[in-house]
Amino acid sequence: MIELIKNKQxxxxxxxxxNEWLDAESGNTFIVKNPFDQSELTEVSDCGPVDTQAAxxxxxxALGLWKILTAGERSAILRKWFNLIIKNQEDLATLLxxxxxxxxxxSRGEIAYGASFIxxxxxxxxxxxxxxxxxHQENKRIIVLKQPVGVVAALTPxxxxxxxxxxxxxxxxxxxxxxxxxxxxxxxxSALALAxxxxxxxxxxxxxxxxPTSNPGEVGEVLTSSPKVKKLSFTGSTAVGKLLMKQxxxxxKKLSLELGGNAPFIVFNDSDIEKAVQGAxxxxxxxxxxxCVCANRIFVQEAIYDQFLAQFTSAVKGLKTGSGxxxxxxxxxxxxxxxxxxxxxxxxxxxxxxxxxEGGKLAIKDTTLFKPTVLADATAEMxxxxxxxxxxxxxxYKFNTVQEVIEMxxxxxxxxxxxxxxxxxxxxxxxxxxxxxxxxxxxxxxxxTAVAPFGGxxxxxxxxxxxxxxxxxxxxxxxxxxxx
Length: 484
Ligand code: SIN
Description:
The protein is an alpha/beta fold. It is built from 14 helices and 20 strands. It folds into two domains: 2-258 and 459-483, 3-Layer(aba) Sandwich (Aldehyde Dehydrogenase, Chain A, domain 1); 263-448, 3-Layer(aba) Sandwich (Aldehyde Dehydrogenase, Chain A, domain 2), CATH 3.40.309.10.
């Protein structure tokens, strides 16, 4: 299958340190599989602590020369990287679908989305402004500098093997940091392809390093304990985020954590139902439900509950499942563990009174291809109300009043994304202000873009990615007090 990739340079299976492709010090490799049929795509060098240490050294040594380039010089290299990614969009998308499973259309979208962070931060690189402050004494002048934090460790997830890397490393590189990327063990190939294009774009040796591993705990330990790593940015589960936070305490690293969500999707009586159905489909079933911002709980107001359910279920019936390389809307789940979770949550919900109106089972036996599912009559007692399903299952709840649904929506430790549909301006402002979430989509199910600050509150983490806010996370503030 990997033969589908036309530009063979994009198929890399070693670690990337100092712009060189290397075997792991142990000589070990691990297998990368296609989640659709479990066929082997290739074997990749398996980094351990020694390789990770070497990557940190490389990044640390590269820092001095990289950060003294002008913003314009760094911007030009980032721009070349962006251009190369766009030129190779089709191959990168195919590679992404092969290792991750999402439909090719979505993979093409992810490559463009990922590249847009590089384009955005290539421009932002030139706009890192400090400050001057009126002095506190007649002979004092106060100046504030913004400087790169230093070596950055980027720990990225399998659900967006391309865009979650660029969203972290583009701002880091733009301001003059060097990076060590640890991609998820299920999807290292997209990260390595990005590294190859970075090398072609002209990043100096050591500025970008990639350490694929089948043992993320071991590599994570080295990254979090190293005093040379000054910042860690992680996207993934809340449980792992909490562990990394503890591990980083020893060296007091700057942190950005983009953790799990439990997004409410609220539909008020005065909504445009057709539009709400489309938004719910887009938000719930993107990447087969495997995004942190996917609608996890759909709340529908009583008067339109039946009508919404009928239209939603009929739209879900029309979604095609299959290999991401075919013309489908839903690809496989990433692995058996993900499938087991979906089955467990669904079983629990059915035992507690939920009704499966559509789907509820595998589309093809012995695969992880789960049918898009609608679960009516969901309640707060179900495990699915508190856990991120990360699969194509849409639990639908009934509610009566605005206050009631705000309480239901906020009844979670997560606070990443929320959505609602309605047309009353007063209610729109009230709900937008009272939802305890970092991002709120109003009359839209799609909120992700490089120009807006992506990130959560509560146990969904902190730090922002994208937009002018996304660059702050890679800067430190230094104040100069000059006596004249
Ligand atoms: C995520 O699932 O973590 C990212 C989704 C997005 O960027 O839209």
